[in-house]
């Protein structure tokens, strides 16, 4: 939502809005000229002189929300976030990045790479770029890059000329209901490609590979990337200097791709961004330089600080596959020290459905602290707590802890960590708020 507001402000429009609580994002929007209220009330529609001509809502806004109800009572145009974003895309060549995992990082890599090529794309991303600190921008280059959200099917509002699908793996079943329905929404997304558009698909993922075959059978042009034989094939990957070096064959020719963020999964994301950039007409050399300079996205293995010899990172991973991939990527970065993870499950439905898988993924760490579930939009379910994940972790009981008290976690982990350890807070909820307290607790222990 803040990204849409930023682009509208860049285009000279008057923007108002509200959020449930104060945040740095709201302060930034105010600095850009938006009128922002904390708390939602019908009178917030009068923040702009004369009132708004349209109201944009996210999927999190319920029908009984006072501002939404008032907007409808006044007969104002009400748009879902995806409809507003689609309107902002008009007149641009659009690249959309979708997938169960990796879409934020891939969208961000593509954006930074195109910026490096001086193409000045407009963009809307689900995370803030480390380079600019922003999640959106109105560019002058005629290209619009957007992260496409499949969680509620809202990405079907877009009509891209380049569609990247990183993977298709069961998630958001609280909305879609079944794995089949979740897969079908990606098939519908590919059907939204404009005539002559291209699907860029990772063939290492079975769901994405199957989608590519289906699209091709319907006459869609497909470009594949991955470790398997593809248009862009990764022949090897080596961790290097906190990042990685991927050797690839691009249409049969050897090329080296340097990635500044760790993990083979990030190298694959870089290949998706590279292929998409080439399809948008960007030069190979410029794209490679841009990817090599990509500094990451907030909350994607983001370094938060250190206390003595203990380093603290934060990551948004909230699906078992993401958790496992990030822990594997973090292991070389630990340089032989222990890997301590503080994991906060996100959504009761996801916790219930994937508890066993989460436990197996967290077993890649040396010490695990599981918090209680961050419910977000869901109501609690009887018997569904972080404990069921903790009990599924295949480590000795002394190395796994379920701690439902948020306030006790910093002292608990500060007592566990020793010099050389890497501590990783992980999850899509408010676990990121622990980092400053954790570093302070570590400082107290060392003092």
In terms of per-residue confidence, which ranges show pLDDT below 50 for 5 or more consecutive residues? Answer: none
Average pLDDT? 90
How many beta-strand segments?
Answer: 20
CATH superfamily of the largest domain: Mur-like, catalytic domain
Widest sheet: strand ordering? 7-6-8-5-9-10-11-12-13-14
Radius of gyration: 22 Å
Q: Helical stretch count?
A: 15
CATH topology of the largest domain: UDP-N-acetylmuramoyl-L-alanine:D-glutamate ligase
Task: Name a few traits of the molecule.
447 residues; alpha/beta; Rossmann fold; UDP-N-acetylmuramoyl-L-alanine:D-glutamate ligase; Protein-Tyrosine Phosphatase, Chain A; 3 domains; ten-stranded mixed sheet; six-stranded mixed sheet; 15 helices; 20 strands; 35% helix; globular
Structure, described:
- With 447 residues, the protein is an alpha/beta fold.
- The chain has 3 domains: 2-79, 3-Layer(aba) Sandwich (Rossmann fold); 91-292, Mur-like, catalytic domain (UDP-N-acetylmuramoyl-L-alanine:D-glutamate ligase); 302-446, Alpha-Beta Complex (Protein-Tyrosine Phosphatase, Chain A).
- It is built from 15 helices and 20 strands.
- The chain has helices at 2-10, 24-31, 66-73, 81-89, 103-116, 173-176, 179-191, 206-217, 264-279, 284-292, 320-333, 348-362, 387-390, 409-416, 434-446; strands spanning 16-19, 35-38, 54-57, 77-80, 93-98, 122-124, 136-137, 143-147, 162-165, 198-202, 221-226, 232-240, 243-250, 253-259, 302-307, 310-315, 339-343, 367-370, 400-402, 422-426.
- The strands form 4 sheets. A 10-stranded mixed β-sheet has the order 7-6-8-5-9-10-11-12-13-14, sandwiched between helices. It has a 6-stranded mixed β-sheet with strand order 15-16-20-17-18-19, with helices on both faces. It has a two-stranded parallel ribbon with strand order 1-2.
- Strand 17, helix 12 and strand 18 form a beta-alpha-beta unit.
- Helix 7 (179-191) crosses helix 8 (206-217), helix 11 packs parallel to helix 12 (348-362) and helix 14 packs across helix 15.
- The mean pLDDT is 90.
